[in-house]
């Protein structure tokens, strides 16, 4: 069973979707959108990933938190140096 909805998309996404169909990478724009939405909904959330990590290795301790704080503090400098 399928349902029909109207969705507004930026022009560049409409163009890219139509090009994907034209190139044979998707059967139709609807099929492409359905596949993208399905993939998005199946992707684990950050909360899911963190919960799994905690389940596997336990809660972070003070050393883990200190390491993370130091890593996050240097992240903007690393990004700036790499041009990201």
Write a structural description.
This protein is mainly α and 84 residues long. The protein folds into 2 domains: 11-42, no CATH class; 46-82, no CATH class. It is built from 4 helices and no strands. The chain has helices at residues 11-22, 29-42, 46-57, 62-82.
Run of helices and strands: HHHH
The computed structural class is: mainly alpha
Q: Terminal Cα separation, in Å?
A: 45 Å
What percentage of amino acids are in beta strands? under 5%
* CA gyration radius, whole angstroms: 21 Å
- The percentage helix is over 70%
Give the low-confidence spans: none
Question: What's the helix count?
Answer: 4
Number of strands: 0
Average residue-wise pLDDT: 92
User: What global shape is seen?
Assistant: elongated
Largest sheet: none
Number of separate structural domains? 2
């Amino acid at each position: 069973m399928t349902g029909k909805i109207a969705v507004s998309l930026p022009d560049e996404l409409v163009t890219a979707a139509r090009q994907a169909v034209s190139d044979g990478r998707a059967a139709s724009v609807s099929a492409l959108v359905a596949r993208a939405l399905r993939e998005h909904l199946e992707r684990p959330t950050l909360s899911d990933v963190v919960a799994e990590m905690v389940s596997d290795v336990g809660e972070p301790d003070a050393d883990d938190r200190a390491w993370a704080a130091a890593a996050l503090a240097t992240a903007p400098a690393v990004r700036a140096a790499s041009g990201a």
